[in-house]
Hints:
Blueprint: E1 7-9, H1 10-14, H2 18-34, E2 39-41, H3 47-62, H4 65-69, E3 72-73, E4 76-77
Parallel strand pairs: 1-2
Antiparallel strand pairs: 3-4
Amino acid sequence: MTRHVPELSLKAFTQGDAAARGAFSDALMAGLQDYGFVILKDHDVPVALLDAAYGMAERVFALDEAEKRRHAAGLRGYTPFGTEHAKD
């Protein structure tokens, strides 16, 4: 069985009726529980802003391990591989 990260339309929540908003919320929760993230489409975030954010993330992960560990701060900041312990 092939599993896929949920792809959700923000318009289903912002422009949908109560049933559509409920289905969106349920799918969002399932995606976060199963994968830790979802794919969100039909939003107004400019592509240039998304590209800039991805560029910043790439620069952070390109830092050497010692520098990244300086920014490790529990549930915020950098989390080194193998140190995160999610509930259950």
